[in-house]
Inverse folding.
């Protein structure tokens, strides 16, 4: 595997991990009034398109990072609906 693969893995890891503090905070506090449901729906749509792109391009870092981020985003949407 070449350096581009590892750059993609690192970039995907960092952008995915960036979501974790928000997920943890929303889970612990059960407070989601400051989260924008519309933003998360639009963002989820973009993540789905990135996954499709990654599948078509056979780009594993894109597929992995966006799939995990999409799961976290769906969980935040769930918390927003439940507690918002």
């Amino acid at each position: 595997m070449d350096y581009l693969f590892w750059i993609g893995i690192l970039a995907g890891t960092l952008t995915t991990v960036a979501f974790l503090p928000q997920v943890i905070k929303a889970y612990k506090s059960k407070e989601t009034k400051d989260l924008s449901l519309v933003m998360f729906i639009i963002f989820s749509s973009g993540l789905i398109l990135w996954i499709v792109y990654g599948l078509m391009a056979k780009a594993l870092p894109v597929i992995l990072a966006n799939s995990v981020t999409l799961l976290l985003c769906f969980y935040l949407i769930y918390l927003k609906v439940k507690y918002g």
